[in-house]
């Protein structure tokens, strides 16, 4: 009963969050006085277009994006087109569909972020636990370095790494995702080429993620080390190795929820990291879209980020339900 | 004699860094309560970093000869005796721009961080103390806002703000308001847990029986118990607000026409300073941002150790000394048990 109720309540919350997120995503860009098309068209006006041509473009855009209709109709159209996998057309690269632009950049973001988040989480937790257990110089050095990496904004580390390793030492190519003249395709040649460009942004994300997790794990493990069951087991003469597994498992549980909470921040930071390395992922796409006032693209990118973060969080919470024995145990509990 | 030594032993067992004197004289008793808090070296280091940066931001511009809007050179002039860190892409003095940027970023952080803390603590205390359906509702809202990545909301709102004509919302204050009203949820959640545990304590019942009103109880009987927690949350909110501002600015959503650390980095990246090796344009804001963030997080973690003795780790030297003393005490005790009273002359 316990597990099922836990899963049901989590599902309910995440569905609620999803609905709110989609509504906000729809509503916020429409809250500005005037509308996105005004901004675009006035930009065109500065480019020297006649007012008649401007008016025509304005009306065409208004119709194309359905902005001349009442808000409620717009919302219904918005929702139905999302379910049809249609995210509209880009303003800046009219008439390229937004989905095409995203299909080009999403793979780069995924190959960068997923390994960095997972590996960072695993390495960070092990380091933090070891630091807490060993104490002394180990603790001091691991804690201080992790804290530095943890508190460093993503892009600051990226900028420093880029400058030192790529520009000064020339070990890595200084930005981009593949060599000039190469284009994304499924071939070994492209893959090895892209790998060289992948390392530097990956390392900079990984270091920060390790730092954040290690700091959290260390304080959890220190907290566990001081608890009653540890003292009791010590008095029973239980060996260090056995005890470490107990402490690790108990300190691990809050770290799993910690992962769920930090995915959003990690993704946000990673977007800027892409920008620093001019890595052609979602972050760079977002940046260019913001600069060009390309509302459909911005809205699509923010929607995808939100959905991805919510799904990732939801999966972590479900996993937590299966791992935490207290939730399983309440099955045969009072109720 | 044994009394004194056993005193020392219990003091050590409580925590090796607790500043206790085995023989508390009248002088030690006269200390005010805050002096007994354990301000470790970490706290002083982090406070030092923050004070230096605040001086740079608020006192520096008074002493430095150039202003942040004085054109003194061309694109990326190298550092010289007159301009310590050269010029940036528009030909402004980097040091002058850096000081103005730091000041604006700090002001932004203070406004946004304080706003977020006030909202978070307010919601958390009310939800935790009053409970019932109000708690369910407030925490429901909190959990939903917490699940949606705040960067997304920030991007969408500040993109709308950019095309408004109201100057108030375009500047650093508007950005701070947006950051403040989007980053309160985790403070609210954490404060709620604390507040609901405080609300079951006896002194709350006493206050209720003596006829105190709910707002009075919240302010006089609940909040003081959360004070240490609120201070730490505030420090974290400051750091995250400053970082949120620089993230938005780097995406090109910063306060247009104003200096901030994020804007400085934004321009440095836009004008290819990293690729061309103009380190003086991008390194100073990077270092200042890192120092601010590191200083605040370090301050938070050392405050955590001051307020929460369980996190405190003893120095190895102290631990060894404590073990030795305990051994000594045990040996003495054993001797005393064996020998008849009065024979042992214990040296302390």
From TrEMBL, chain A:
* Domain ABC transmembrane type-1, chain residue ranges per copy: 106-316
One annotated GO biological process? transmembrane transport
Q: Where in the cell is it found?
A: Cell membrane; Membrane
Q: Chief localization class?
A: membrane
List GO terms (cellular component aspect).
Answer: plasma membrane
Task: Identify its membrane topology class.
Answer: Multi-pass membrane protein
Q: Does the keyword Transmembrane helix apply?
A: yes
- Give me the segments passing through the membrane: 12-32, 110-133, 154-174, 194-212, 256-277, 297-323
InterPro entries, per this entry?
A: MetI-like, MetI-like_sf
Coiled coil spans: none
User: Which keywords does the record carry?
Assistant: Membrane, Transmembrane, Transmembrane helix, Transport
Query: What PANTHER family does the entry give?
Result: OLIGOPEPTIDE TRANSPORT SYSTEM PERMEASE PROTEIN
Question: Its family?
Answer: Belongs to the binding-protein-dependent transport system permease family.
Protein name (Swiss-Prot/TrEMBL)? Peptide ABC transporter permease
Name the lineage: Bacteria, Bacillati, Actinomycetota, Actinomycetes, Propionibacteriales
From TrEMBL, chain B:
Q: Which CDD domains match?
A: TM_PBP2 (cd06261)
Q: Where in the cell is it found?
A: Cell membrane
Q: How does it sit in the membrane?
A: Multi-pass membrane protein
| Entry's family note | Belongs to the binding-protein-dependent transport system permease family.
Annotated segments matching region Disordered: 1-27
Q: Which InterPro entries does the entry mention? A: BP-dependent_transpt_permease, MetI-like, MetI-like_sf, OppC_N
TM helices/strands, residue ranges: 43-64, 109-131, 137-156, 168-186, 222-244, 288-307
Question: Pfam families under this entry?
Answer: BPD_transp_1, OppC_N
What's in the keyword line of the UniProt record?
Cell membrane, Membrane, Transmembrane, Transmembrane helix, Transport
Q: GO CC annotations? A: plasma membrane
The ABC transmembrane type-1 domain sits at 102-300
Organism of this sequence: Micropruina glycogenica
A single GO molecular-function term is:
dipeptide transmembrane transporter activity
Q: What is this protein called?
A: ABC-type dipeptide/oligopeptide/nickel transport system, permease component
